[in-house]
Design a protein that fits this description.
Elements: H1 11-78, H2 84-105, H3 108-121, H4 123-137, H5 145-157
Helix pairs in contact: 1-2, 3-4
Length: 162
């Protein structure tokens, strides 16, 4: 049917069509607005959860460092008084206590900023420290040391598969 064969639209039909289109636009805008609000809310909840988890991990790290420092202090105290090793062990224990205090009193974001600044100022020392930390963790220390090494060994030896 061409345009001349259709019944003529009335003004009321046009108004109804326009109001339906307007209502659809408003509904779509409301849905978009609500979706954006829910997305922001979800982002905030996830961010807060991540910060909370990072803070809990830092508290555990500080407690572990404090325990090691206490053990080192006991080792230094039980050693011969004139031993140079005892002095070094006591100094390490004091340094560990200071690190634990700093971790406990600063937030995760502040500590991460400190690490970034240190890595920029002293990249060589940062890399050595990271390597030592990875070495101290060892291949059997949970989470992935062995699983990470295994594929590399296979690739280097030329053997594929398990």
């Amino acid at each position: 049917m061409d345009r001349s064969d259709r019944p003529h639209e009335t003004g009321r039909d046009r108004a109804t069509g326009h109001s339906a289109a307007g209502a659809a636009r408003e509904g779509a805008a409301d849905v978009l607005h609500e979706s954006a609000a829910q997305g922001r809310d979800l982002y905030e909840r996830m961010r807060e959860q991540a910060v909370h988890e990072a803070e809990a991990q830092l508290r555990r790290l500080a407690a572990t460092i404090r325990d090691v420092s206490t053990d080192l202090r006991h080792m230094g105290d039980s050693a011969k008084p004139d031993s140079p090793a005892a002095s070094l062990v006591r100094q390490a224990a004091g340094g560990g206590q200071r690190v634990a205090d700093r971790i406990e009193h600063r937030g995760a974001a502040d500590l991460l900023d400190d690490v970034r600044h240190f890595a920029r100022r002293r990249p060589g020392l940062f890399l050595v420290g990271a390597a030592l930390a990875g070495f101290a963790r060892g291949p059997g220390a949970g989470g992935g040391g062995r699983g990470v090494q295994q594929p590399c060994v296979r690739a280097a030896s030329g053997r594929g598969g398990p």
